[in-house]
Structures are given as structure tokens and as C-alpha cells.
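Feature request disguised as a bug report, sorry. It would help if multi-protein outputs had a clear separator. Right now it looks like this:
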Amino acid sequence: MRPLTFVCLFLSLGAPLKMAGAVQPAPSLVPAPARTTRDTHVIERYSITSSILKQTRMVDVALPASFPQTGANRRYPVAVLFDGETNTTTGATVSGELARNGLIPEMILVGIENVDALNGRVYDLTPPGLSVSGSDLNQGGDRFLDFIQQELLPAVDLQFRGAAPRLLIGHSSGAILATYAAATRPAFRGVIAIDGPIALENSWLARKLIARAKEPSTPPLRYALYEAKFRWPDRIWDELAAVAPASWRVRRDTMRLEGHETVYMIAAYQGLREIFADYSRLAASAKPGTQMISHYDEVSAGFGAMLVPPRRLLVDAMSDLISEGRGAQARAAYDLLVAGYGAPPDGADWSARIADAERQPAPAETVEGLLKTPFPTPEEVRPFLGEWMGSIWMTAAQPRRNNITLRIRVENGRVIGETRNADAPPEMSGWIRVDYLRVTQNGLTWGRLNGMRPRGVMLWEGTLQGITLSGTGRWGGIAVTDPPGTERGFSFTRTVR
């Protein structure tokens, strides 16, 4: 028996036997050095003694990410949240992520905590003239709004550089007071009302908002309503939408997958996106350099207060303007970035690139200039009217698929150029209009502003020979070095005249 025992012991000390069908142990997760994560909001708690309320109230303040890096002249919009003890953290997370992506401006969030979850909350959040949860008609909503406007916001402005525009975000009873503020307090340019019983007392609140909409020269308002349990009567909402002036933006959505207790996060996200839809960098990114920045002059005018463009948009604008050789404009964008968000870590590199652009002579061709070039007249473009089919290639080795159609037509006396790619996915398979079209001595040049970076105009310069239009492609309005092997070209044959 000893030899057998020896053999078994030997095998147990060696490599494990791989039996047929045996399950191998799962690999282990081995701790690794921590990576740096992006900053999140830090929420600080403060008390404020109110002579209006004759109370000391607790408020939660979440400052924007750039606050420590900016100076005394940088001011931030302020959003006031009701039910601060439960909603400030969610609101700060949502607004921080949206701002980081350049979809809303950085802002200060102020969450007002309730003195208690029942009677005190109902008293503060119910306007006089309305009964909620069995309350009388003399509740303290107006006084609570006075406290916010006359005491809380001035304190935030003084201590934390708050400024207009002002927003209110309320859920449930908070949506009642937020809607009442939308109807009676024009200082609040943006209001997000989340699943509140607005239909109480024969839609008393909704009718007050409609009455304000009908007032002559009523100030601008952006009102976003989100429903889960409680619904506006459709006819009342339709009436509001019909009478809302052009300076108002009203939006109503039903969050069908949410309940009254779960709706806050997604509604706060959607509401902030809606209130600041025209601020989003996605609303301006299709424009060339300086127009991307000037877009925010129009947005600021709509809010009645200066809004700093998104950080990511300013970085893109600087890159675009440098590639266009417009050093002075790139410098202005950089100065705005520093004032709005603090000096970037790679500031020295940006300064060197901008300085190099400033030393260059003024560009003879700019993206904005190309996009402003008038299209030819119907008579000038007559030799090219119709459809042309062929190929566009980026390298000499790229297959010629004969899958692109160029169409030149006249509509209501106006010349239109457009292309279609037969191999494009369904969502991109339609006709796409060109941004530049010019008849030249030997042929035709057309182009389109690149939807990605670099933000130049991709120009296709063709020579007409019989029924063939062929030539080469180049970037217009920018100086950019293409990857090795790039050799843009095209060849089209007329198929329909």
C-alpha cells in the first residue's frame, strides 16, 4: 500500500489533474492602483434666519465644479429645489453631469429643507386660495416665495456669486408652488413641475398660469411639466399651449415607466434639458467657430442674463479658430474659457498655439466666408442641372462603388444641390443638401460643412468633360494635415438631365 500512497501524494503536490468535464475555477479580481475619477458636487448645509418666516431654516448648497477656479466676476444661475433633504443630492448629480457634457450651464443648487414632513411642508408649499391635503385656504406659499426672493437668493448671490436666471424645481406639493410661482412670479424664468396635483380645485393653478400667459407683454417663461400619477386635463393644457406667447416655452411629458416616488431623477434631467435646450452645445455645434460663441448672446438674451458658453464648446471653438488661422478670435475664446471655468491644465499649450495663429497673415478663405457664398443663379447652373452618379474616394486604393448621387435642381427659383449615398444606413440614406455651390470656369465646385472635427468645408472641385464631372477634394477654410495616403477624388456621370 505504501507505493500507492506515495504516488497519490506525488500527484497532489504537482499540477492539478484536468479531469474530463471538470469546471475550472473562476479567475480572481486582483486589487490595482486606484484611478482618478471626475469630481462630483460637494453639498454643504447652512442655516438662515428669516424675518419673513420668523424661523431659522436649513438649506443645502451645491456649488458648480468650476467655482473654486473662477474669480469674483463669474456669476452662476441659481436653481432652488423644494424638499431639499431628499432632492438636493439627486439634483446636484443630474445638473453636474449635464453641465459636464455642455448641455446646461453650470449652476448653484439650493435645496430648502422642510421644518417637518407633514403640516409644515404643506403650509410652505401651498399658495393661499388653494386647499391641499385638507388644509384651509390661508396657507403660506406666498410668504415662502417672498422668503426665497427677498432673503435666500440675495444671501446666495452675496456669498456664492449667484445671479439670474432663477429656476424653481418642485415635486408633488413642490410642483404646486413651482407652478404658482410660474403664474405669479416672473423673476423665475425657468420652472420644472414634477408630478403635482395641478388639477385640484377645478385646475385652479393651471388657470392662473393661463391668465398670466394672456397678459400683454408678459415676461418670458420656460415651463416644463412631468406627470406620473397626477395629470393635467388635456383640454386645459391645450388651452395653455394655444395662448402661450412666442417668448414662452411650455413642455408636457408623461413618464410612463415611473411612479410618484421614482419620477424625480428622470424628470429633473429632462426638465433641465428642456429649459436649456437652446443652451446645449449640441444646439450650436453645427455652426462654425465664432458663430458657435455668438449663439450664446441670443440664448442669454432669452434668459435675461449672461450665460457663459459650455466649456467643451469653447475648447472646440478654439481648435476650429486656430485651424482657420483666426488667432484673435481664438484668443477671445480662450479668455472666455479662463474667465468662465478657470485656466485649463494645458493652458500653456493653448496659448502657444494661439500665439502662432496670431502671427499668421489673415486667411484668404474662411469657413464663414465659404458658407456665405451665394449659390449660382438657375441660368448659371443650367449645364449641371439633373442627377449625376458616381464615386467619391479618400485614398487611391478605395473601391469605386458608384454609389453616390449628386443632384442639382431649381425649386421656386432657388438653386439646390444635394447628395445621396445608396450604401448609407437608413437614417442617413436621404438627400443631404450641400452648403456651398459655385460654377467655375471649367466646371462645378460643391461642398458641405464637416459635421465632425475638423470643422472645415469639404470642397469637391470638378471639371466638366462631356457628361463626366470629375476632380479632387480638399478642406476649405482651414489648414489641416491629412493622414498619409490621403488622395481625395471623385468622378460622376450624368444620368438624368
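(second protein starts here, but nothing in the output says so)
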Amino acid sequence: MIKDAVNHLKKARRTLIITYIIVVAIILNILLLLHGVLFNFISSLLFSYESKSSLSEIGDSFGVINSIFSICAFLALAYATWLQDQALKDARASLNQQNENLIASLETLKISSDAQKRIGYGTTYNHIVSRLESEHQRQLRGKLYTLYETKKYDSWEQDDKEIAYMLAANWDICGMLAKSTDLPDRYLAEHYSRAIIGCWICAEKAITERRDHRKDPVLWQGFFNLYEIARLHRVSQDLPAITFTFK
């Protein structure tokens, strides 16, 4: 802050000097011009021809003085121009420095933002894992797999369907959490693609029936989004497809 204030004062002083020099140069030239005109006019009125010859010499001396002042005025203008050029160079340097400081600040903010995002990702991922790794969810997944492999869907009881509904709701919450925090797809796909795809395959008919019953085609859409992410992940990694067979 103090450095900026000092630089501002220097620039203001330079501007004042430039303005002063230009004004003085203009005034000197005007005075010298008026002086020559007045001198010639007065001499023509007051002095004889013989006197005018001697006065002309004096006038010539004023002409020399006028030339000297003109040169001084030219040098003053040249110096003023140089000062202005230096001021512009300083302004450009200051602007470049400000741009560099701004870029550095933006990079610092980006690093801080990325760090906060990673912290947020970790928090969200841990919360999702705690939901998926609970003993209750593990038991439900085991029951759903067994149902799918041992009973055709037409013979499922309502309690069997409720197992699919509870798992779908839990996966849906996990999908919405991941989407709301922009959690990278790989966080869940790398560790839970098998569980996600397996649960979707086993529960898909129950989910479709529930959607039709409620007339809500996007019911548990978060679960479906996770399924698509997991499926694409396994395809991109050349992992084997997940299948279930009836016993």
C-alpha cells in the first residue's frame, strides 16, 4: 500500500512538471513574439531613420535572444516529451506487475479451491461408503442376489420387492449425493461398479413396476445414473460384464 502511494505521488509530480514546462514554453514564445512586434512598432513611431539603423542592431540582438529562448523552449518540450514517455513506461510496467499479481492470486485461489473440493469429495465419499458398507445394506444386497438367482420375478412376494425398493432408495441417495457435490465418477465406479450393476440388474423389474405404479418415470434416477457410470467404467477398463444366472 505504501509503495503504491509513493508511486502515485511520483506519477503526479511528473505530470505536474510536464504541464509546467509546456505552459512556461508556450508563455515564453508568446512573450518573445509580442516583444518583437511591440519593439518594431514603437521604434517606427519614436525614432528617425538613422536611429532605426542602430535600433535594428538592437532588434537583431533580440532576434538572437529570441532564437536562444526558442531553442530553450524546444529543449523544454523535448524534455517534457521524454518525461511523458517515461511515465508511460512506468504505467505499463505497473500494469504488467498488477497483471502478474492478479494471475498469481487467481492461481492461489484455484489451488485453494481445488484443495477444498478434494476435502469435499473425501467427505461425500466417506458418507456414501458408510451408507453402502453398513451391515443392513450388505444383508439386503445378499438377499437381492439370492432372490434374483433362485426365483423368477413373477413369483416374488411383496416383501421380496421391498428389498429391491430399499436398496434402490439407498443407491438413489448415494447417486444424488455424488451429483450434488460433483464427485468424480471414478470415486464410486472403481470400488462399487460390481455392486451397483448387480443391484440394478436384480432390481430393475421391481423398479420399473414401481415407476409405472406411481407414474413417475424418473423415480430413483440417481440409482440409474450410478448404473450408467459403473457400466461405462467397466467398458472403458475392459472389465468382464456382470451377469446372474438362475440356479
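Even a blank line would do. Unrelated, but nice: Residues 2-116 form one domain.
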